[in-house]
Amino acid sequence: MKKTGLFLIAVMSAWSLSGCTANTTPASNTNANTNSNANAAKPVAAAPTSDALMVMDKAANEAWSKGDPKWFQDNLSSKFVMYEGGQRMDKDAVVKMIGSNKCDVKSMNYTEPAMTKINDDLYVLTYKGSIDGNCTMNGKTEKLPAESRAVSAYLREGDKWMGIYHGENPIVDPTKAPPPPAKKDEKAGDHKDMKKEANASNSAANSTANTAAPAAPAKSANTDALTQMHNKGWEAFKNKDAKWFEANLVDNSVFVDPFGNVHTGRTAVVKLWTETMKCEGITKTSFSDSAATSISPTVELLTGKGTADGKCDGQPNGDLYQTSLYVKEGNDWKLAFMVESLPMPGM
Questions:
Q1: In this structure, CATH architecture of domain 43-176
Q2: Which of 68, 80, 158, 255 is deepest in the core (most CB within 10 A)?
Q3: C-alpha torsion angle, residues 304, 308, 313, 316 (rounded to 10)
Q4: Does the fold of domain 218-341 match that of domain 43-176?
């Protein structure tokens, strides 16, 4: 995988609390006491704070800079997903990649931490990371972006907070961002050739880090339903349909845009997508290459590629890689958090 940003995957250490409900249907009073004592002694991770999560992010970054795969093996959830430049990676693939990193980091600083509660067992941390350093992968050395917006999600698993997602966007001026990759005439043959070339490029870029890497997590049974809903969201964006977004985003929804800016709260996000962004000439949109991972019965993590024609804020639209957390409210899935990233050069 071509590494272009900080790799700051973070995980909370365990906090111990007692207090689980005892088994109320034991075979005898002796068994009841035994079960009660065992359950009461079982530790449960306490709710985190943004400061505590930042402490763990720093520890994770130290492990990354030293190429310490064991730290990530111990502290990433089996449900972990990372989606970068169109590559969807699971825990095993990421751990393998960490071990191949060769980095020279002179300094790292973190500011602007903010924590979003998805539910009692899932929190997301965003912050600004500043770094001076470079990394070598596949024989090529690249300087790391000076400033990036990092996003890390944590799931409570018993007595620990485990990482389930990490992503980051270099912080750039939208007017100076590189244009989207040029596309061929999308006739059936050209589209097929373009996809073949992209796959070949991705394969070459990942040949060293991900040789024989395990497949990404299996798709959730909710993948099709969430993909359909996400496509409706793109349609609402095209039509500037604020009412649709108001009905399908949670109150405290958060959006991290491709340029490293954070937009917090449903009102702010809806206004951005339907008023603030000046878009024209959008006649078609799509969301494809999607896969959902079931985080819990009421939370799904959806990844995929969104595309629109036309222009927004004077810039031509193109492919955007999206990672979204959906939560279930009653019978409805609603968008709680989304990170949108530009394709890497050559993608």
A1: Roll (3.10)
A2: 80
A3: 100
A4: yes
